[in-house]
């Protein structure tokens, strides 16, 4: 299948009467510009070997969830060093053009209230979830108030 790019008519190719001073002039080009600007960031991230990561927390833990579809469990490396969580994954695949290799990595700065001991990771259905426990000092405590 071959894609052919459609070229929009310009002022030179149409009579002057076709381009009046209406409210809709330039809307198509403005929408194209917005879409190109929005999609430019995703293309650069994929080319740089990055992958989507979500981070969230509750009262006891900080969670980091990364989408790594197609990677084997033993090809994923999780490290916590100097306040940074580093996720790395690599794979090799045999394709029509020969053997292809893919290596992706991502480093995330961790909050100061995270313990480095007790970190756990689970990889289920292409989603890696890393659980980082919070320090006891950072956990909220309930204080009862005595009435006298």
Low-confidence stretches: none
Q: What is the helix/strand order?
A: HEEEEEEE
Please work out how many helical segments DSSP would assign: 1
Oligomer state equals: single chain
Give the beta-strand count. Answer: 7
Read across the widest sheet, the strand sequence of neighbours is 1-2-7-6
**Percent helix:** 10-25%
| Global structural class | mainly beta
CATH topology of the largest domain: Immunoglobulin-like
Please tell me the overall pLDDT: 78
Percent strand: 35-45%
State the shape.
flat
CATH level-1 class of the largest domain: Mainly Beta
Assign the CATH architecture of the largest domain.
Answer: Sandwich
The figure for the number of domains is 2
Measure the end-to-end span.
Answer: 83 Å
Q: How is the biggest beta sheet arranged?
A: 4 strands, antiparallel
Gyration radius (Cα, Å) is 25 Å
What attributes characterize this protein structure?
single chain, mainly beta, Immunoglobulin-like, 3-stranded antiparallel β-sheet
Q: How would you describe the overall organization of this protein?
A:
The protein is mainly beta and 148 residues long. It folds into two domains: 16-47; 53-138, Immunoglobulin-like. Helix content is 14%, strand content 36%. It has one helix and seven strands. The protein has one helix at 27-47; strands at 53-57, 61-67, 76-81, 84-95, 98-109, 120-124, 127-133. Strands 1-2-7-6 form a four-stranded antiparallel beta sheet, with no helix packed on it. The model has no long low-confidence stretch (mean pLDDT 78).
